[in-house]
């Protein structure tokens, strides 16, 4: 394949972002192959002001070169995501994860105590972004508070 008279040796692959470290992403394709990728510099999400345009859970398209290098070129629309407001950048949000099937919030009564303020904030945020949540209490916590174990 040629592009502008130059040899163009790459293929377009669809995959799921499974890890993010700085500006490097680990993307798994439907065959189970993993690719270390960088995001293209001009890659920006429309309508979302975020500190990172690509997050774990995103379904992405990448160009994979014959030498093994790969670049994320596009992101599919997200069905949902969970955010944390950036403390230093008031107009930006830090998206923690995208396309979430179920969020589990593990709650402890003591050592350490999960505050009701934290639980409330998490539940409100999850509801606002259409993320289903399940609260998880340990068996020990239930026994201490005499809560029936289901």
What is the topological layout?
Blueprint: E1 2-3, E2 6-7, E3 10-21, E4 24-29, E5 34-39, E6 59-65, E7 70-75, E8 81-85, E9 93-98, E10 103-107, H1 116-128, E11 133-137, H2 139-145
Parallel strand pairs: 5-7, 10-11
Antiparallel strand pairs: 1-2, 3-4, 3-6, 4-5, 6-7, 8-9
Describe the structure.
The chain has 150 residues and is mainly beta. It has a domain of 77 residues: OB fold (Dihydrolipoamide Acetyltransferase, E2P), CATH 2.40.50. It has 2 helices and 11 strands; from the N terminus they run E-E-E-E-E-E-E-E-E-E-H-E-H. A 5-stranded mixed beta barrel has the order 3-4-5-7-6. Strands 1-2 form a two-stranded antiparallel ribbon. The termini are far apart. The N terminus is likely disordered.
């Amino acid at each position: 394949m040629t592009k502008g008279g130059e040899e163009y040796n790459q293929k377009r692959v669809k995959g799921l972002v499974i890890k993010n470290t700085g500006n490097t992403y680990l993307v798994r394709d439907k065959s189970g192959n993993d690719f270390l990728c960088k995001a293209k510099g001009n890659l920006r999400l429309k309508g979302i002001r975020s500190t990172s345009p690509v997050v774990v859970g995103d379904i992405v398209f990448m160009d994979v070169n014959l030498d093994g290098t790969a670049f994320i070129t596009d992101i599919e629309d997200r069905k949902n995501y969970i955010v944390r407001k950036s403390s230093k950048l008031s107009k930006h949000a830090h998206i923690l994860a995208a396309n979430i099937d179920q969020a589990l919030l593990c709650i402890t009564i003591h050592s350490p105590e999960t505050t009701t303020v934290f639980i409330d904030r998490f539940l409100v945020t999850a509801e606002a972004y259409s993320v289903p949540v399940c609260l998880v209490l340990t068996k020990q916590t239930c026994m201490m508070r005499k809560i029936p174990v289901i």
